[in-house]
Design brief:
The protein is an alpha+beta fold. The chain contains two helices and five strands, in the order E-E-H-H-E-E-E.
Length: 148
């Protein structure tokens, strides 16, 4: 192709060395990069939802333990505390608890709570299944010394 000159408009039109527009390879590469970014965003959103759920369960467990401590301090009847625990632990997945005397409160599991009854210190241990694998491994422990 040769250049064309139009004298009435003083315009010189030259042919383009290559065609305009995107090739199919450009579009596929752009879609691949976009897909990788979208997968990263979805992974981040999933982790955020898991952390939010875990934080909610932990706050519920702390509320349960605080309420038990307050009921025990107020000398509530044991039946009242047991009824409260049964009602509120239903909120937590695989929720379990134990109230005992323990010198080493940060040990044990729901099956073996490891209460040694050797201390005046009272302990509330609350367990729940935080990752939904069937085992209650997350724990909140709250201690107090009874008056007297």
């Amino acid at each position: 192709m040769r250049e064309r000159f139009f004298p009435e408009t003083d315009v010189l039109i030259a042919p383009h060395p290559r065609p305009w527009g995107s090739s199919l390879i450009d579009v596929v590469v752009a879609l691949l990069i976009f897909s990788i970014g979208l997968l990263g965003f979805l992974g981040l959103q999933t982790m955020s939802l898991k952390a939010n759920r875990s934080t909610y369960y932990r706050s519920v467990a702390v509320s349960i333990a605080e309420e038990v401590v307050e009921r025990e301090r107020a000398n509530a009847a044991a039946a009242d505390v047991d009824e409260f625990l049964a009602r509120t632990l239903a909120i937590l997945p695989s929720g379990q608890s134990r109230i005992c005397r323990d010198a080493t409160p940060n040990d044990g599991s729901p099956k073996v709570p490891a209460c040694d009854d050797s201390s005046l210190q009272r302990v509330v241990k609350v367990w729940w299944d935080d990752d939904f694998d069937g085992a209650a491994e997350a724990r909140v422990v709250m201690m107090w010394a009874p008056p007297g």
